[in-house]
Specification:
The chain folds into two domains: about 210 residues, inorganic pyrophosphatase (n-terminal core) (Alpha-Beta Complex), CATH 3.90.1640.10; about 130 residues, Diaminopimelate Epimerase, Chain A, domain 1, CATH 3.10.310.30. Helix content is about 40%, strand content about 20%. Strand 12 and strand 13 form a beta hairpin. The protein is globular and about 60 Å long. The structure holds guanosine-5'-monophosphate and manganese (II) ion.
Length: about 350
């Protein structure tokens, strides 16, 4: 755990400030939930806080209270630049390195004249002036709760803040099932319910919001699933054509990789998704036990994340990426064998 400069930060925030909160590119439930909860909290403390995300977020998060007030750097570029220019400090939430916001926004943030605060749970964080980094915590949303607690402000958590934090913790823990979910996480969740988070509604808003096409896309993905039992590995591909066929929308592929990991005996799962717009193949990796997909992705696919959940990309074609991925596995044969856990 790294906690750097937070006493100074507390003093800095004693007077009202203009604050920008930034989440990572392709914001997920945790990036959105933690950023919006922090905004509401800072507003309550007398600041003017605004959330800016690099690009579109999934439809199943549009219901979040106040999501319509979140700025998009790609779409509302001049307003976003104005907000950044006028800000006294920028919070970086749910990412560990500036390149995670995408090229355009990274270029702007690299020129930023004031200081950054990072609150994040990813491995190998960059160094900024104020840091709260803990790779053992399940979600940045839990860290925002703990940040509010550090300031003895838990009583400021209202229904909106509780709902945003609940959403972030729920989505990043696979609904409280991943290893990073602790009894402390559950105590926080209980407190968020007490403070107004309607748990059944939040689950339903996020997980029962599928379009028919999204289910058909899932069906296509599952029929593309390939299993390599020797390496306890399963992977899924999705081509641009297949995405078009089922009217792909941002967020539609989220969670699909977990189906590959749900196979009995599989400890390493991947999904390889062609992205013609960015001219890359976007990859998600998941594992069970000691096999670190963070390391695997860093080593071969310019990515990173956590030990059991990471992402990366490839500049090769989809077919070539599949070949690269499958031929790498022999290097990890021993590790994949040993890291099996029941
Ligand atoms: P997902 O596969 O759900 O997109 O991401 C899994 C985890 O890996 C998330 O914590 C995400 O922030 C991280 N991640 C995803 N893609 C990348 C990437 O390209 N680079 C890095 N460093 N982390 C990533
Ligand atoms: Mn997260």
């Amino acid at each position: 755990m790294i906690l750097k400069g937070f006493e100074d930060l507390k003093r800095f925030l004693e007077k009202p400030k203009n604050i920008v909160i930034v989440g990572h590119r392709n914001p997920d439930g945790d990036a959105m939930g933690s950023s919006m909860a922090l905004k509401y909290y800072l507003d309550k403390k007398g600041h003017q806080a605004t959330v800016i995300v690099p690009n579109e977020y999934p439809e199943f998060l549009h219901w979040l209270p106040g999501a319509d007030k979140v700025y998009r750097f790609d779409k509302q570029n001049s307003q976003s630049l104005r907000l950044l220019n006028a800000s006294d400090i920028v919070f970086l939430l749910d990412f560990n390195a500036l390149h995670r916001v995408g090229f355009d926004m990274q270029a702007r943030l690299e020129k930023y004249k004031n200081d950054f605060v990072m609150i994040d749970h990813h491995q190998q964080p960059d160094t900024v002036k104020y840091m709260y980094s803990d790779v053992t915590i399940c979600s940045t949303s839990q860290m925002v709760y703990q940040f509010i607690e550090m300031n003895s402000d838990l009583d400021l958590i209202d229904t909106d803040i509780a709902s945003c934090l609940y959403t972030g913790i729920m989505t990043d823990t696979g609904s409280f099932r991943f290893r990073s979910t602790t009894s402390f996480t559950h105590r926080i969740i209980a407190d968020l319910i007490d403070k107004g988070a309607e748990n059944h509604k939040i689950h339903s808003n996020v997980y029962d919001a599928n379009s028919y096409n999204r289910l058909l896309l899932l069906g296509q993905a599952l029929s593309n699933l390939q299993i390599l039992p020797h390496y306890k590995t399963a992977f899924i591909t999705l081509s641009t054509l297949e995405k078009k066929q089922f009217d792909f929308k941002k967020g539609d592929t989220e969670g699909i990789v977990n189906y590959a990991l749900s196979l009995k005996g599989i400890i390493f799962a991947a999904i390889l998704i062609e992205d013609s717009e960015q001219k890359i193949v976007k990859m998600s990796f998941r594992s069970k036990g000691a096999f670190s997909v963070n390391q695997f992705s860093r080593n071969h696919f310019s990515g990173g994340g956590h030990d059991n959940a990471a992402g990366g990309k490839s500049d090769l074609s989809l077919t070539e990426t599949v070949t690269k991925f499958t031929s790498l596995l022999s290097e990890y044969e021993e590790e994949l064998k040993e890291s099996y856990e029941n």
